[in-house]
Write a structure and sequence with these properties.
- Helices cover 49% and strands 9% of the residues.
- It is mainly alpha-helical and 128 residues long.
- The chain has one domain: Arc Repressor Mutant, subunit A.
- Strands 1-2 form a two-stranded antiparallel sheet. Strands 3-4 form a two-stranded antiparallel sheet.
- A hairpin with a 3-residue loop joins β3 and β4.
- The chain is globular.
- The two termini are 25 Å apart.
């Protein structure tokens, strides 16, 4: 089994976690930046009583537009793309971050990612 270990600061957890998965997500640098801010907001809301706040709430949108200078129209396009890629999903009627993209700290100090790449049998036979 291949194992890669990287030590990061707690405030960079969301960004580094998403960056590690970006080979599968195929996001641009700007999309990754915006998604990491959404993830930070999502994690902060799940730790408080605001856990049922939609990921695309007006409050979250305003915060993201303020810190990134992205326009309202462009932010809507990014959110639409995140929905199309199943990064944002509806849970109990509320738009939320996909659970697969939510880092879970083991013992408060480690986040582990397991990636499984399935090889199609028919394509394996064609390459021989």
């Amino acid at each position: 089994m291949n194992k890669f270990i990287k030590t990061i600061s707690p405030d960079k957890l969301g960004y580094e976690f998403l960056r590690s998965l970006n080979g599968l997500l195929d996001l641009t640098d700007r999309e990754l930046e915006l998604l990491s801010i959404f993830l930070d907001l999502y994690l902060a809301n799940t730790k408080t009583r605001k856990g049922k706040t939609p990921i695309d709430s007006t409050e979250n949108r305003r915060h993201i537009m303020k810190v990134t200078t992205v326009t309202k129209d462009n932010l809507c396009r990014y959110i639409k793309m995140f929905r199309e890629k199943k990064i944002f999903v509806k849970e109990d009627g509320i738009l939320s971050m996909s659970r697969a993209l939510t880092p879970i700290a083991i013992g408060g100090k480690t986040v582990q990612i397991t990636m499984i790449l399935k090889i199609k049998e028919d394509e394996l036979l064609q390459s021989n």
